[in-house]
């Protein structure tokens, strides 16, 4: 694990205790292979891949200005984030997801898939 952290740290222009904690939490130890590996829920990853196939992004009109922006919602939005969200182009459809952090696609795949599916059906 320390080797993984050192490698990530060397590639990052910014590092913090929170980044290290997030990195440690994204790995698990596999007793069978005697190695650390990404802690992925393959069922959730499979759902995301099925959604990606259903969206057929390769068939979307690339000149379209339809954009769905999904981000976590926070009880206390930092001022910099409020400013950043306000600067998004007006044609962006913004969905802020409650009760999730930066791993929202992994922790809330069904909710994210529902948001994306609804948005596509409205277009």
Low-confidence blocks of residues: none
Which series of helices and strands comes N to C?
Answer: HHEEHEHEHH
First-to-last CA distance:
45 Å
Q: What is the count of DSSP helices, taking H or I runs of 4+ residues?
A: 6
**In which range does the helix fraction lie?**
40-55%
> What Rg, in angstroms, do the CA atoms define?
18 Å
Oligomer: single chain
Largest sheet: 2 strands, antiparallel
Structural class: alpha+beta
Mean pLDDT: 84
Percent strand? 15-25%
Integer count of domains: 2
Total strands: the figure is 4
Spatial ordering of strands, largest sheet: 1-2
Task: Please sum up the structure shown.
With 123 residues, the chain is of the alpha+beta class. The chain is 48% helix and 16% strand.
Fold and architecture overview:
This protein is α+β, with helices and mostly antiparallel strands. The chain has 6 helices and 4 strands. It folds into 2 domains: 37 residues, no CATH class; 81 residues, no CATH class. Helix content is 48%, strand content 16%. It has a two-stranded antiparallel sheet with strand order 1-2. It has a two-stranded parallel sheet with strand order 3-4. The longest helix is centred in the middle third of the chain and has 14 residues. The protein is globular. The N and C termini lie far apart (45 Å).
């Amino acid at each position: 694990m320390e080797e993984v952290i050192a490698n990530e740290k060397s590639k990052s222009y910014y590092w913090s205790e929170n980044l290290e904690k997030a990195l440690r939490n994204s790995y698990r130890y596999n007793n069978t292979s005697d190695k650390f590996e990404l802690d992925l829920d393959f069922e959730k990853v499979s759902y995301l891949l099925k959604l990606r196939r259903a969206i057929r992004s390769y068939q979307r009109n690339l000149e379209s200005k339809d954009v769905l922006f999904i981000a976590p919602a926070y009880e206390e939005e930092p001022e910099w984030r409020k400013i950043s969200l306000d600067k998004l182009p007006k044609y962006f459809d913004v969905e802020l997801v409650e009760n999730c952090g930066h791993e929202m696609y992994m922790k809330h795949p069904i909710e994210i898939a529902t948001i994306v599916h609804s948005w596509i059906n409205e277009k």
